[in-house]
Amino acid sequence: MNYWTDHRPVHRSRAVDAEGIARAALALLDEGGLEALTLRAVAAALGVAPSSLYSRVRSLEDVLDLALDAALGADPAVQALVRARTAGPEVLDELLLSHFRHLCRHPWALQVLPRRALRGPHHLALSERMCGLLEHEGARDPLAAAYALSNLVIGSAMTSALDEEELTTPVDERLAPGYARLHGAGTADSEDVLRLGLVALREALTAS
């Protein structure tokens, strides 16, 4: 079940509002990760009893849906590109790179994304913008292209934390001489690698 498609009607005139729950959850997640997020912790941050939350949400999964969308909506770089009226391959690339940076700033989101369908208003606006840009570029299947590019972004964000270890851990040249030579001269970080991959994949997906 998903908060955005199955959320319950509010029966109390003074119920806790969803925006407050989202803000409290986002603060907890950014400070302490998934382990810090409980209904009791959200209620404490709002100064209410945990039972009060059930007028708005059914479970912690609903709270995660709210927090995911609130985080994206609070990202000025992503929102500026979503609202922009410009188009072109460089606009699409920058939108995807901004989403990558957003996910790197909120690593807890990378643990949640694989198990939640993103149907909040800010994620829908991002998807709408991405599909529109891909249509503008002539993608044969804009939705499939959007999925492919998004998967590349998410996977890159998941491994970005390994940048320093990957660059500094030596490679045994006896086992992989070519790799060791290239690795020793390499300086690219995950965003550089992602940019290279995005351009190549986008060009392949929009080739006429």
CATH superfamily of the largest domain: Tetracycline Repressor, domain 2
Structural class: mainly alpha
Tell me the Rg in angstroms: 20 Å
- Identify low-pLDDT runs: none
Strand percentage, roughly?
A: under 5%
**Gross CATH architecture of the largest domain:** Orthogonal Bundle
Give me the count of strands: 0
Mean pLDDT across the residues is 93
**What is the tally of helical segments?**
12
Total domains, how many? Answer: 2
General form: globular
Helix content range: 55-70%
- Along the chain, the helix and strand elements come as HHHHHHHHHHHH
User: What's the CATH class of the largest domain, please?
Assistant: Mainly Alpha
Using the coordinates shown, work out and report the CATH topology of the largest domain: Tetracycline Repressor, domain 2
- Distance, first to last CA: 39 Å
Please outline the major beta sheet.
none
